[in-house]
Amino acid sequence: KDGSQIALLAGHTQQIFSVAFSPDGTRLVTGSQDCSARVWDGVTGQPRLVLQSEETLSFPVSFAGFSSDGTRVVTTSWDRNARVWSARDGHALLTFENHTGIVRAAAFSPDGARLATASDDLTARLWDVRDGKPLVELRGHRDAISALAFSPEGSTLITASHDRSALLWDAGSGKLRASLDDHGGALSGLSIAQLAAGTAPTA
Fold first, then answer.
1. What are the pLDDT digits (tens) for 13-70?
2. Which residues contact 168 (CB under 8 A, 6 or more apart)?
3. How many CA atoms lie within 13 A of 67 on its CB side?
4. Of 115, 114, 121, nearest to 140 (Cα)?
5. Taking Cα atoms as reference points, which of 143, 132, 66 lies closest to residue 159?
6. Apex CA 144: angle with CA 96 and CA 133, to 5°?
């Protein structure tokens, strides 16, 4: 409560690009230029898992995050792929490999059944997490896509790009719903707030 340091997460050997808490707040996951992702104890800062395989040894990890139930971790990499890992033992579960540019971000749908990925190839993609097969390709940005997020109920996906816009998509059909174009510079992040029942967003 006083802003003092609680723990130091020591282990990465190069720049850290991404950090995220697990949904229950007990763990953290980090992605680094040292070509690894790591899972940490969220209280003590002690290392729990190193997420790395022979295929990832030469490629920085641009993003890492948990599924909504905390059982899986997704990482994205400069090798143009995304991967899902077991958050329990660090075992690699699936690789998602159709992008032609660096994959910058990823997000699980709230129900954990789909994965969305964002890439320098100007596309976002939706995947079936059960078998790794592509579902929908989203095209509309004019520059690299840097971030994305599902709405709390999972029906909408929003993507943010270096082209200074954010686009809202139907997460089922891939149809573009709206464009938010008034930013003055490249977008590097976004978040969707969950509204209380019976409320509506304000301008």
1. 999 999 999 999 999 999 999 999 999 999 999 999 999 988 888 999 999 999 999 9
2. 156, 157, 158, 176, 177, 178, 179, 180
3. 19
4. 121
5. 143
6. 20
> What is the rounded distance in angstroms from the CA atom of residue 21 to the CA atom of residue 27?
6
Looking at residue 69, its pLDDT comes to: 97
More confident residue, 164 or 142: 142
Q: Which is more confidently placed, 191 or 84?
A: 84
Task: Determine the Cα–Cα distance for residues 144 and 103; give it in Å rounded to an integer.
Answer: 9
Phi, psi torsion values for 9, nearest 5 degrees: -95, 100
CA distance to 72, 90, 170, 180, per residue, from 166 (Å): 27, 33, 14, 5
Amino acid at 52: Q
Distance CA 73, CA 50 (A): 11
Q: What is the model's pTM?
A: 0.88
| Contacting residues for 32 by C-beta, under 8 A, at least 6 apart | 12, 13, 14, 15, 16, 17, 38, 60, 61
Tokens of 179: 């464009």
